[in-house]
Amino acid sequence: MSSDFESYEQDFAVLTADITGRIGRVPKLLGDEKKQMVANIEKQLEEARELLEQMELEVREIPPQSRGMYSSRMRSYKQEMGKLEADFPEEGSWHLCFQTIGNGRVQNWMGLERVCLNAHEMKQIH
Q1: pLDDT per position in the chain (126 positions), as tens?
Q2: Which domains does the chain have, with CATH numbers?
Q3: d(Cα 70, Cα 66) in Å, to the nearest integer?
Q4: Among 26, 15, 20, CA closest to 85
Q5: What is the torsional sign of CA 19, 105, 108, 99?
């Protein structure tokens, strides 16, 4: 059992590292290239969620006396997933950024990113 869990852990680590790198590259891309990257990231985030679900199923199969270590690791992975999702706005928010940035004001991306992320955060509050 633990070998399955550890295999999922390795897959999760590789996937989240790739997602983190891709999220960092999004601001440097334009147009269709940016849209494609966003779509790829969204797909990878879904894959990461599925890996977490598989790991949770594996943890449930562990005898209660041995479950603590795995449960602790799961909490850490869920926090990491939450951070990735917080760092990556919903598709609609990125679309607004594309439109604004598409007008040749790429040099303002960092400020625009903050506006887009704030709009995303406000949406989560409501």
Answers
A1: 568 999 999 999 999 999 999 998 988 888 889 889 999 999 999 999 999 999 999 999 989 888 888 999 999 999 999 999 888 865 445 544 544 445 444 434 444 444 454 444 444 444
A2: 1-88 (1.20.58.400), 89-126 (no CATH)
A3: 8
A4: 20
A5: negative
